[in-house]
Amino acid sequence: MTSSKDWWQARQDDLKHLTENKCPIFVYDEESITEILFDLLSIEPLDRLFYTLAANPHPRILEKVFQMGIGFKCFSSVEVAFLHSHFSGIKPHQLLFAPDCRDSIDRDSSGATTILNLTQNFKGWPKLYENRNVLFEFKIGEKDSQAKNLVKRLSNLHASVKGLHLIGMPTDLDGIISLLKDIFASFPGSSVISLDCGMGLFGQTKLNLSTISDMLETLKDSWPQCELWLNPEPLMLAHTGVLLTKTTYTFQKKGSHYAGIDTSVDFLIQESGYGIHHEIINLSRSERKATVITHIIGPEAMAENAPSSCVKKMPPVEQDDILLITNMGAWSQDTNFDPRFRAPSSEFYLSARPMCPVKI
């Protein structure tokens, strides 16, 4: 991946200017977003790319995804309806539907390809999949016998089985290829291999494109007639966004340094459990060395005991300093889709500079 996670360094003046009118504020960098999408589309064996809508449904990001011919992965009929309301020309082949409950399946009539999960949304609901194009989900680590048992059950389902939705990083490609041949033989109309790219990259903010490309080439060489789809890690855009927040007060207690900011720090603590790393940079003093261990606390914390804090080594922090928090371009793994989750007034889409070579 050629995109730098430190894109904000070249845009410091722009970011500081934004905080004069609004703070805290999420900022998404168009140049980095465009670059990572181009990198994914450049994977030669790839036939179709999907963006997870809930990862970040900012209107400008979705517009760019749509204009670049990238499809969308949705988890509910609400998300599908949201896309139809924003893109009147969206087609069924641009939608990959992984329903999270029976209600979502009942309500969806978009014609999207549906991912069939044996344990969650197939058992007991076979009629819901009648006359649908489906991919059945197979997780790396499951026994092949489970997949073969599902193949038998799918034979009695009045749905058009298009192929396999693979979750996980295959370590035994020969075994996967053998399984695929069994599936394709059982369903002559199937040819799709859809890859859910959480594949060993969970919690990382930058995708290993060479690993993915090599795997896709191996699959294509072994099964030339297959159609390869890719749904990358939802956090693929994490490094393209930052959160700018202001220091509201500072104090010292028992030799420790504390800085209160105007936004909650709960997400910094919670997301560490997902392996998401957030750097905190003092944008007001970025030229100075990090020398002070500082406890960052949000407005929900009492200054006396600071029960919720994030500890970082950084330059000395003073009141009204602007702090920049990295890897904020994608939402938490467990965030339910809600386009209002981050209020539009708290977001800013940082347009590409006029001379930027990746501006489209």
Helix content: 10-25%
In percent, how much strand structure appears in the residues? 25-35%
Shape verdict: elongated
On the 0-100 scale, what is the average pLDDT?
81
**Biggest sheet descriptor:** 8 strands, mixed
Number of domains: 2
Indicate the CATH topology of the largest domain. TIM Barrel
Low-confidence stretches at least 5 residues in length (pLDDT < 50)?
A: 199-206
Annotation, overall tally of beta strands: 16
Second-tier CATH architecture of the largest domain:
Alpha-Beta Barrel
Structural class: alpha/beta
CATH class of the largest domain: Alpha Beta
Secondary-structure element order, N to C: HEHEHEHEHEEHEHEHEEEHEEEEE
Say which CATH homologous superfamily of the largest domain is assigned: Alanine racemase
Radius of gyration, Cα only, in angstroms? Answer: 23 Å
Q: What is the helix tally?
A: 9
Distance from N terminus to C terminus (CA atoms, Å) equals 19 Å
